[in-house]
Amino acid sequence: MQHFSDEAIQEVYKMSDAVRDIHELLIDLNNDQIINEERTVIQVPGTDNTVLYMPCINIHNKYSILKTISIFPDNINIPVSQGITLLTELENGEHIATLESSYLTRLRTGAMSALATDHLAAEKAASLAIIGTGGMAYEQALGVLAVRKIKNIYLYNRTSVKAELFKASLEQSTQAAITICQTSSEAVKHADIINCATRSNEPVFHHEDIKSEVHINGVGSYLPSMREIDIQTIQAADTIVMDDKEGAMQEAGEFIEAEKQGLFDFGQILLLKDIAISQSNKKGITIFKSVGAAYYDLAVTVGAYQKLKS
């Protein structure tokens, strides 16, 4: 059985690859080729540390995965997110490879936001606000940059040093002007697109600060206690798209709370698999909420393996 490191994967598997493979996965999902079991989320008692276990099968390409990823937000000298995925082929059940999945997790989430942004954001969207510059934020930015001609990027992070480091890193991937903001309000008031990638337990921007036409990608919160998007924005949204309804109903904290208050209904959402086959952009406030699902990991794991083995 082969093993592939994050570094080896990163050499050959890029955002364009992930966007393509996620799109093909959504076709299989629409054709009922995916068998996905509910993921298990275990929080380490007395800490903010979490471990996730995610299984999935693709009948069409005859692969399955079991992914585990740990999220330890206080890590300093090692990554906050660390993952490994076991890849199995379904001809005879052979376990053919393990792939480190920290990079793949970031990349597939960025690719999902790329697809959502491409179908939901205004075609002329040119400004991006990034709230939170942690582990998921870089690939989220790459996803937006892959589908829109961004001229201005506004960064906000509670720790200014991390914002400076993120800016220096992002400058290697874009010619857009990058501004570090002192508040999230300052960042979002300019934005046609807003990326939120935090582990916040309260909304990271205020509804009154955003434009009347804006697309929001919320990918950071994945526990019922977490919040990124305020309820007023959820109420005002013209279109809400989620990556996985069942997962979101259990893990998307701000939406769970909004439904409890009678201000939102999960029955009103669209799914990423539905909008990915359409061509029209939506108007007004649009939201893409991602909590993750194993079939997205399966798509990029198989895609990366196919490039690595050749």
Number of helices: 11
- Please outline the major beta sheet: 8 strands, parallel
- As laid out across the biggest beta sheet, the strand order is 10-9-8-11-12-15-13-14
In CATH, the architecture of the largest domain is: 3-Layer(aba) Sandwich
Which consecutive residue ranges, at least 5 long each, have pLDDT under 50? none
Distance between the termini: 15 Å
Fourth-level CATH superfamily of the largest domain: NAD(P)-binding Rossmann-like Domain
Structural class, judged by helices and strands?
alpha/beta
Total number of domains? 2
Average pLDDT across residues? 93
Radius of gyration based on Cα positions: 18 Å
Strand tally is 15
* Highest-level CATH class of the largest domain: Alpha Beta
The CATH topology of the largest domain comes to: Rossmann fold
Note the run of SSEs as H and E.
Answer: EHHEEEEEEHEHEHEHEEHEHHEHEH
Shape: globular
Approximately how much beta-strand content do the residues carry?
Answer: 15-25%
Task: Give the helix level as a range of percent.
Answer: 25-40%
Protein name: Ornithine cyclodeaminase family protein
InterPro entries: NAD(P)-bd_dom_sf, ODC_Mu_crystall, ODC_N
